């Protein structure tokens, strides 16, 4: 989301430091996993991450250090600063228990992309084509998330017109609270149905301080570093939430199984009409559910909805029984 559409482009050349970093990144190009990694079957630790955050470097209400303090107080471990078209000075903001990742939100040709793991001073020309922008970010070791497609009025054709992004926002709390267009489950399912097996994050896209921490992404990573977090983001080793906790999710012997914090509804879903809705009964909330995945269901993903209507979204597992 963008509050102020008149942000001025910064035309400063890359610093020597940024150019050296760019060269280093170029030598370690990311490799996109062919299939998503199930975080519940992986070694590692969970980190609560905010991946789409604004400060007064663009149209947010506080400066970067104050924004970071707000996320620390809310129990976040990792925060990416993603101001419109601009990276930020982040020196001294990370420590052994709190990691700040450099990023920006770029919007070439009416798209909004959250770009992560950029060198400070990285610039993206405003007239760049969307695909060229994604390629440019990937080429220096960064990663791109397709932001709030419903809020932008984007269709599956728009989502399929570019490739190489590592995830989409299935939920953006500021777009939901502003105009009720923060959800993108339909966009996500359409991508998955078309064979674009991609994970989905939840973000709070914060501009104003009262809205810090309303949605997040729980990332399982092998170590506490930007590289490890980015590896997990690229491989889908995470789940998204604005409330519920997911404790386990897997498919065993053709049965999808989930364990979670107390839920009023648990959803399993695949392409088209494949899916199941399991509801709490007799005032007893659910903490687990199972679904026998049909043979022709290509993938199965899950959602947990608590008694307040808050959701968690678990990344899809491809159906091993699909011929
Ligand atoms: Zn945006
Ligand atoms: Zn934004």
Concise account of the structure shown:
With 323 residues, the protein is an alpha+beta fold.
Q: Mind explaining what this structure looks like?
A:
The chain is 19% helix and 30% strand. The chain has 323 residues and is α+β, with helices and mostly antiparallel strands. The protein folds into 2 domains: 16-241, Metal-dependent hydrolases (TIM Barrel, Alpha-Beta Barrel), CATH 3.20.20; 246-318, Sandwich (Immunoglobulin-like), CATH 2.60.40. The strands form 2 sheets. The chain has a 13-stranded mixed sheet with strand order 7-6-5-4-3-2-1-8-9-16-15-12-13, sandwiched between helices. A 3-stranded antiparallel sheet has the order 10-11-14, with no helix packed on it. The longest helix is centred in the first third of the chain and has 11 residues, at 16-26. The protein starts with 15 loop residues before the first helix and ends in a 5-residue tail after the last strand. Mean pLDDT is 91; it is low at 4-14 and 18-33. Bound molecules: zinc ion (ZN) (2 copies).
Bound molecules: zinc ion
Q: How many structural units, i.e. domains?
A: 2
**What's the name of the CATH homologous superfamily of the largest domain?**
Metal-dependent hydrolases
User: How would you write the strand order of the largest sheet?
Assistant: 7-6-5-4-3-2-1-8-9-16-15-12-13
- The radius of gyration is 19 Å
Q: Please give the CATH class of the largest domain.
A: Alpha Beta
Q: What structural class is derived from the secondary structure elements?
A: alpha+beta
Question: N-to-C SSE series?
Answer: HEHEEEHEHEHHEEHEEEEEEEE
What does the average pLDDT come to? Answer: 91
Q: Percent helix among the residues?
A: 10-25%
Query: How many β strands by DSSP?
Result: 16
Residue runs with pLDDT of under 50 for 5 or more positions: 4-14, 18-33
Distance between the termini: 41 Å
Provide the CATH topology of the largest domain: TIM Barrel
Q: How many individual helices?
A: 7
Report the sheet with the most strands, covering strand number, pairing sense and barrel closure: 13 strands, mixed
**How much of the polypeptide forms β-strand, as a percent range?**
25-35%
How would you sum up the global shape? globular
* CATH-scheme architecture of the largest domain: Alpha-Beta Barrel
